[in-house]
Fold this protein.
Amino acid sequence: MHKKALIFWGGWEGHTPERSANVVKDILSDNDFDVRIEQGTSALADPAIDGLHLIVPVVTMSTVEKAELDNLTRAVRNGTGLAGFHGTMCDSFRNEPEYQFMTGGQWVAHPGNIIDHRIDIAKPLDPIVAGIGSFPYRSEQYYMHVDPQNEVLATTTFTGEHLDFIKGVVMPVVWKRRYGVGRVFYSALGHTADEFEVPQMRRIFERGALWAARTPR
């Protein structure tokens, strides 16, 4: 039985939401998902999303109707998986604390903008990051407000070069968590669709999305 996934995209164009959504579609399709892509949040109003195996938001700095958000959080609490990346999941709806509670974090800064930094694997035995050592990365280095309940799989350390008072801060980059009985996966990597060409980034997201997806029923 094929798993069913919904990708919804929109918001700030700087994050290449439509292109990124199609990259994710290809990743999921290669893993036997039937994938539906929708622009905007209106697809979340359908109560049938409760039966999906996975939902992937690719939306930044946008808004969502209360009924849509209620439907989304209910679906995840009931077992639908949620997976996403960068600001397209953890800067989607700044005015919605319930959404942030579900995702486990919210972007607040990226000092220096596009910079070279390092990604360090925090739990090398976890299947999502197994076999992937520390690697260099060039993108926004996200500073986030994060839920202490997250199971952190990878981190990055701020050098203080671009903001002196955060020197030495170790920031979660990749995590997984539960929301109700649903599995939630997040990676801060993926500012634009081009970053999926970095093999470690793509592999981590692919594994995380597969982990998050509900077992077919």
